[in-house]
Amino acid sequence: MSTPLLSVKNLCVTFASRRGDFQAVRGVSFELGRERLGVVGESGSGKSMTGRAILGLVRPPGRVTADRMELEGQSILNLPERRMRKLRGSRISMVMQDPKFSLNPVMTVGDQIMESYRLHAGGGRAAARKKALEMLNAVRIRDPERVMDTYPHEVSGGMGQRIMIAMMLAPDPQILIADEPTSALDVSVRGEVLNIMDGLVRDRGMGLIFISHDLNLVARFCDRVLIMYAGRVVESLPARDLHNARHPYTQGLLRSQPRLDTPVERLPVLQREESWRSGELDPLPET
Amino acid sequence: MARPVSARNRRIRRVAGTALSLALTLLGLLLVTFIIGRVMPIDPVLKVVGDRASQAQYDAVYQAMGLDQPLAVQFLRYIGEVLTGDFGRSISTGQPVIQDIKRVFPATLELAALGTFIGVSIGVPLGVIAAARRGGWIDQIARVVALVGYSMPIFWLGLMGLLVFYGILGWVGGPGRQGIIYDGMVPQVTGMILVDSLIAGDWGAFRDAFSHIILPASLLGYYSLAYISRMTRSFMLEQLSAEYITTARVKGMSERAVVWRHAFRNISIPLVTVIALSFGSLLEGSVLTEIIFSWPGLGQYITNTLLAGDMNAVLGGTVVVGVCFIGLNLLSDILYRVLDPRSK
User: Fold this and answer.
1) What pLDDT, on a 0 to 100 scale, did the predictor assign at position A183?
2) Percentage of chain A surpassing pLDDT 90?
3) A119/B253 CB distance under 8 A
4) Where does the ABC transporter domain lie (chain A) (predicted)?
5) Fewer Cβ in 10 A, N or C end of chain B?
6) CATH 3.40.50.280 at A34-52+79-278, yes or no
7) φ/ψ (deg, to 5) at B13
């Protein structure tokens, strides 16, 4: 494989507090090509913080360190804010959990999409409007002309998330970090939103980091999966081999899911072991 | 076709609802002033006839004033009088109360408006920057400025201001609204000397009036600044931790654009209410300032007439202040609806 889109080695995010340092992310390494990489883990496992660290959005007292963090071979570790801002949105972007909160309530949908496009592409309002309409079409929103002038509270959750995707993809980034993009949505619209996102990411040859706590979803939707536990990657494997996972944490997670085909009386409870915190079962193979 | 009609119906219903609640508030205000006027241990008849009048004279005036009628009838008549702008005659000035208020209210309005302007134009940016750079030196300074503003007695600050800027430095005009040479020189249009002198194109009078108003207005401005900057800061902190702010940062916006374009637009909505209330409290609450600066405004008028037991004037002034508050509330309500797309 040629230079990966994103290459991260030994990423740590540390929060200094009065009672000593707390490490939210403890030495995460992975590479991302033009693929869909799932990051799975429970709350507090550091998966969201990994995404924010890549975007340079960890704010003091948080601190980001790594041996390497490169975007197409160019280091983006602790870049000055001014240069990081040029990358954010235009090359790496992020879709967040709940469109109810992640869209500005007092700006029209159109203004928000146009703003994100004009920040990086420049150009006049007319060009931005055209692009925004095009993006709304791309996320399969009917009557985009009308939706442009609506406010976020006037659209449904699924539509809000599609607007969010349109907005974040308008400046044509290479990497999209999707941080639990469907957790806040009704089950009925989840699939639709995922399909739209998948299609766009594929068509544009983007890299996708899909952060989720839903093992099944990730297995179905992604090419490769990282399993995180307590700030570390405990296992990395192709999504189709998930059922062959070797790490006891992953195995435990899989076992504790109910199955329609083999119902059991009681689901096993995950028995945590202290040794999981300390590291990977075996080191990740270098790619 | 059914849609636009129902939308218009809704709008009409909302306007009607607002009007009704305004009317009820006003009614409540008048009920309170009416009751206060009746329960005060001041005999309105004695105030008119003096304490040497005969019983027959007393009774005649008692009847002429309608005090023999049932309370409900008196109250209805009172409402009627107030609505036609008749607050009775002031005993201390010998003029109709409404005339007095027309004379003193513009002075207070001018002072409160300039004070609020100063408070908003410094307090809002200060609060925004304090929140954006939380814990930084601007935040610390803003904290101290607000704390001093909250805790320093205004009469002391006023006297010190007069001593330093008028007495020692001579930078500003002294007490009163105008220097003696300009007194009555500007034709009265609005009663606000700054405005009137501009209308007349009299720059000398404008400069003079400005040099008189700037010190008391700054003082009031400082107090409203203390309040407004703290409120702005806390509204701002709340917004800056919201998800859509992260969205704006992910888009690659500069921090300044994040703060002013995204967060500030959201706080401008509750800020309108804060500013309106702060303005309202300056309209009635600047008694101390008006006395220290010999400012012939409503606060001084109400205080003086109260000390003279001149109930017509006191209640008239109270009604005016109350109506101003109701009006400001209505105004901030309307602005709220204009600014917040969610309320449509």
Assistant:
1) 83
2) 8
3) yes
4) 8-255
5) N
6) no
7) -60, -40
